[in-house]
Design brief:
Length: 426
């Protein structure tokens, strides 16, 4: 194995990270210009490097593609020299600043920000920045935009290139938001600043400048399925073959799982993927793995995740518990199927981090007996969830009872020992 070079943070010179906009050199502050003129090495995108005048005499190094793996290598190659890295707008807002901070630590950086494209866009549109949601499609699938579509919502979409506006218009139309107003703001802050606008379902503008931001004012079509921000999406939002945790049970289950930002869920026996999908929709930083033994259902989970705006859902096809080996440690586990599989509950319990939550649902007597035994041994909470729907009965209306669901939930103790406190609420 080749030796790992010492970190660039050991350099006596902090790395200057300078934000630059479409207005180029004239738009930079004195501090930004001084950092660039003093630099012995200038690292940035080709477009950004071309904005610098001759007095920036340092060696110019263009980022290779892919960029992220090259960061430690380039910093190590030029360690000990005065380095300035160019970034678009604010380096710490979806910019290279994150990667540099991870490599060098905050003490190894001197960040000189420039107004971001989002700040410019809100200034042009008259939108309060704090009320505007930002979705980046730079290096990310357009499907993730679907999770942010709500009536009346204002969005700013950071484009990957000139083709992004048409891609956004097509996705809005497909997801029932065709009447939404779009404005494409190009070269914000530069001499060639421009704007194209129209309605998503009627979008016919040709690709313009690759440096653009798409402003969206969300407006649903008549009859579009309404999706809320809380768990319990309509069952009709999912493609399924009957293997679906139904809406009311799903809402109760997600409430018990209690997703929090950054946490990881194992959804074992994924079915249609509804639990994992709504876990991911709870916060953009949530993570989830859905394990499903049936290949057709696994493909269906992937389609549902993409349609509902969480294409980052990882789907593992194979039987549990064998398919759980090697997965990252979960903060929560949901078992929606296969409870009687030998070793499944034990494997999930052992994998769960201390303080994590396990929730299991079943409708069969055999699995219910298994959960009752675990409740006696581990504690937690054992509940029965029952839902009835009003249906026609001749010329009258009566209740039709759905199969009751037995649910066991438990928090894994942080200390040693088996039994969890009976008062725990997952």
């Amino acid at each position: 194995m080749s030796p790992v070079p010492p970190p660039a943070a050991a350099s006596s010179h902090p790395v200057s990270v300078v934000g630059i906009g479409a207005d180029g050199w004239p738009g930079l502050t004195g501090a930004a210009r001084e950092a660039l003129v003093a630099a012995e090495v200038l690292i940035g995108g080709g477009r950004q490097l071309d904005l610098l005048p001759p007095e920036c005499a340092g060696a110019r190094v263009a980022w290779p593609s892919p960029l992220r793996p090259a960061v430690p290598r380039l910093l190590a190659e030029h360690r000990g020299r005065r380095i300035a890295v160019l970034a678009s707008g604010d380096p710490m807002f979806y910019g290279i600043g994150r990667a540099l901070a991870q490599e060098l630590g905050p003490e190894g950086l001197r960040v000189v920000p420039h107004p971001s494209s989002v700040s410019y866009a809100c200034a042009r549109l008259g939108w309060p920045l704090e009320d505007t949601e930002v979705v980046t499609l730079v290096g990310r699938p357009a499907a993730r935009l679907a999770a942010s579509l709500y009536p009346g919502r204002r969005l700013l979409v950071l484009s990957a290139d000139a083709s992004t506006p048409a891609e956004v218009a097509a996705l809005l139309t497909d997801r029932g938001f065709g009447p939404s107003r779009l404005r494409v703001l190009e070269q914000l802050g530069g001499e060639d600043e421009g704007c194209a606008e129209g309605i998503a379902q009627e979008w016919a503008h040709p690709p313009g400048d690759r440096l653009n931001v798409v402003a969206v004012e969300c407006l649903p079509s008549a009859g579009a399925l309404r999706l809320g921000t809380v768990p319990g999406l309509p069952d009709a939002a999912y493609e399924h073959d009957g293997q679906l945790t139904k809406r009311h049970i799903r809402a109760a289950t997600l409430g018990t799982l209690a997703p929090a930002p950054g946490e990881l869920l194992w959804d074992v026996g994924g079915g249609s993927g509804s639990i994992a999908i709504e876990w991911l929709r709870a916060h953009p930083s949530c993570r989830a793995v859905s394990v499903e033994r049936d290949a057709v259902r696994a493909e269906r989970i992937t389609r549902n995740a993409e349609r509902l705006g969480v294409p980052g859902l990882r789907v593992v096809t194979g039987p549990a518990p064998a398919s759980l080996a090697g997965l990252p440690v979960p903060d929560a586990v949901f078992i929606g199927g296969g409870l009687t599989a030998a070793g499944l509950l034990d494997a999930c319990w052992e994998a769960l981090r201390p303080g994590g939550r396990l929730v299991a649902n079943t409708v069969t007597l055999e699995s219910e007996a298994l959960l009752a035994g675990r409740h006696a041994a581990y504690g937690g909470e054992l509940v029965r969830l029952a839902v009835a729907h009003a249906v026609p009965v001749g010329g009258f209306t009566g209740w039709r009872q759905a199969m009751p669901v037995t649910q066991w939930s438990v928090v894994k103790p942080r200390e040693s020992g088996v039994r969890s406190d009976k008062g725990d609420r997952s």
